[in-house]
Amino acid sequence: MDPKLLFCLPQGDALFNPLNTMFIQMACILVFSQLFFLLLKPCGQAGPVAQILAGIVLSPALLSRIPKVKEFFLQKDAADYYSFFSFALRTSFMFLIGLEFDLHFMRRNFKKVTVITISSMVSCGLLSLAFFYLLKPLLHIKEDYFTFFLVLFITLSNTASPVVLRSIADWKLDTSEIGRLTISCALLNELTNVVVYTIIIAVVSGGSLIGDFFLFIFMTGALILLNRFLASWLPKRNPKEKYLSKAETLVFFIFLLIIGITIESYDVNSSVSVFIIGINFPRQGKTHRTLINRLSYPIHEFVLPVYFGYIGFRFSIIALTRRYYICLVIILILTLVGKFIGVISACMYLKIPKKYWLFLPTILSVKGHVGLLLLDANYDQKYT
Fold it and tell me: The Cation/H+ exchanger transmembrane domain covers which part of the protein (predicted)?
């Protein structure tokens, strides 16, 4: 990327640099999301709904239709900044999700989580296969049918785990049995879909899949071991301090970004590796306490709202034709039907109380995260 852009120097006739406009956009998202949250909170709506609506307000569907606003927010070089910043936000919150994930609950309820996840994915897969031949002519798909089927399957079966996690927390269900079960199912579902997505990208880009996977596994394992060493060594440098210094905390995040950027440079999504690094981080002691303390507030109050707003900002309904509206309605119906059939079947098998039969499939039907990953797929340009 041009160094002038990195230093926020406008080029040519550009009045503003895309990096500057991106931060202004973030501020607008935070302001609008707070307003929507105040309006929707009495209705029982969670924070992500307000934040996604804030992004939609700023998107080309509404305010960005105004020529001056569109020229300001949608500059020619803005896509690179938005894509990279989206990656940085995603890396930070996936690491925190791994740090906060309840491993003991997952071990105790592994059967429930896997049965619900597999059942919902199987039902969505069968629906994808059944309606594949209907959607193929509507979308004018004339080649690469296998990839289209996999994308359709991911679209129907995926769950946006960050949205689920934040919603469960806003509803004060994160310490309840059903809340933790929902979060675990959402994470397992999304990570499975990301793996499938990674395979799609590897096949489409024609890369060396097996060799790259071994490299990523090695890098992830090496950073896990390095984190274990640093987590025990750094607290000994200042044993009287309750927390690590900010510089010491930054070391962990720098290594994490290096791993993430390296993996993404192969056109492979790094979310799974980042989550695994977080979940394998030592859970006891000063280092874990420091990371939770330093990351929780900024990620929950700034990073996730901006990321959810970014989901809404990518929503461009004015670009859809009548044919795509029909496909959108069909896919929404198939998603709900697939989730309800799969999750309720699993609930019947696992003897989960009937009062949760409506809640579980509904909350596991939320979308947005994996969709952004598919939109950000770029085979020609790298992050590095």
Answer: 35-374
